[in-house]
Structures are given as structure tokens and as C-alpha cells.
Amino acid sequence: MATKVTIEPPKGMKAGLYRTFSTMVNQDFLEKVEPYEKWRVLTYATCFLHSVVQERRKFGPIGFSLPYEFNAADLDASLLYLEKHLNQCASTNRRYEWEAMQNMICSIQYGGKITQELDRETFATYGQQWIREDIFNGNF
Is residue 87's pLDDT more than 90? Predict the structure, then answer.
């Protein structure tokens, strides 16, 4: 007797976010970094970026020029970097460095796998839209 278990990726943005928040992000994770409100918003923005990228892969050459293997490790590394950056800024009383966060997430964590220039530009645009100070505004 054998049992085979497979986990299919969720379908759609809502399902992707739900899976991320049910497996990687829990209440303790959301209370890791102070100020909590900003950490939670930045965590959500990064998870949203990850879900968009995962969903976009499904469209083949319309989504990205080549099939890139983005996975949960990329998201985990990005969230770890953000955690360290926010803690360091809080301890040294500095402003958040948005350009550094965008570059680290979009050019290094995820972007290290991207080989096509147009795909790199697309990803950089995502970072500029969702990893910025305006995300803390209530109307964003």
C-alpha cells in the first residue's frame, strides 16, 4: 500500500495570498518588527508581489519571456531582508531606504533568476509600485 500526496499551487491571486498567509506568515511573524503597522503593510505588499509573479508565470511568454522558477524561498529571503532592514533603521534612527529595498527584492532576490532585460524592467516596475513609502497611506 502506498499513499501519494501532492500539493497543487493555488489558482488565482486570492488563493496565492491565502496560501502564503496560511503557511509562511502567522501572528507571531506579523509582530516581529516594530512599528507593527508598517511591518504588516510591507509584509503584505511583498506577499502580494510574490503572488503576482506566481500568477504571471502561468501565462507563459505573455507573462514572462522565459519560465523562471520563482518560489517561496525568494519570498522568505525578501521578508528576512526587510525584517533586518527595518530593525536596523529603527535601532539607528534612520529613514527607510526604499530604493535599497526595491533593488534587493527585485534585482537580487527575485531578479537573480531573471535573464531577459524586459522581464527585469517589468519586475523593477512592480517593485517601484508596491515597495515604496506610499503603501503606508490609507488610500493606497
Answer: yes
Domain regions of the chain by residue span: 21-136
pLDDT in tens, 53-80: 988 888 878 888 888 888 999 999 999 9
Q: What is the pTM of this model?
A: 0.86
CB-based contacts of 113-116 (< 8 A; 24+ apart in sequence): 113/68, 113/69, 113/70, 113/74, 114/64, 114/68, 115/66, 116/64, 116/65, 116/66
Cα separation, 16 vs 50, whole angstroms: 9
Is the pLDDT confidence value at 18 over 60?
yes
Domain 21-136: which topology? Helicase, Ruva Protein; domain 3 (1.10.8)
Which residue in 99, 83, 79 sits closest to 91, CA to CA? Answer: 83
